[in-house]
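Task card 7
Instruction: Convert sequence to structure tokens.
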Amino acid sequence: MSDFTVELLFGSNEQAYPIKSEAIRYLGYRKSLPDDITDSLIDKCSEELCAVVSPKCCYVRTSVEFPDENITSFGFGGIKSHALYTHLQGCSEVILMAATIGISADRLIGKYGRISPAKSVIIDALASSAIENWCDSAELTLTKKDKLHCSRFSAGYGDFPLSYQKDFIQYLDTARKIGVTLSNSLLMTPTKSVTAVIGIGASSRTCSNKCMTCENTHCIYRL
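Output:
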């Protein structure tokens, strides 16, 4: 079982780290594009965000078992979830990961919330895109030796209870390793943080479009 912290490079340009296009979708632009003034503001906000983020990821790789129908067991005991059970069928191992882009993103969002609400909203969208892209990068790195694996799956997806965030945080020791803590209301700090399960040894069910595997078909951010 592996247990250590991974830190990867976070590029400040679109080629190295393409956060802008997804952020535009988060801002509500689906079939249209922002005007030139808004587009320029997004670029400026992106540069400011990329200058302060500190992306980190920690993980544990361990075996996975299915002791009963809709029950998945790894690391910290059995989890009752049909969605998780179905997603991991065919897997022999899992990678449990936690990732964050750091507290500075929260501080930047808070700062502009007081002096420029428009910039605060844009930076929030960029930060949400950044953590997802950072997780994509970390996932690619963590599975590069595995020909077969599932896309990551997080507590809160389908009927996978959000309450299991507590177990992820404790098991991965995220407070010490990457500075991620959890409130009593199950909100992570820094807020732009993610915990997830990646199944190893699955068939060809890997899907690069997370929206297509999500059961929330009415989400306003769905592709």
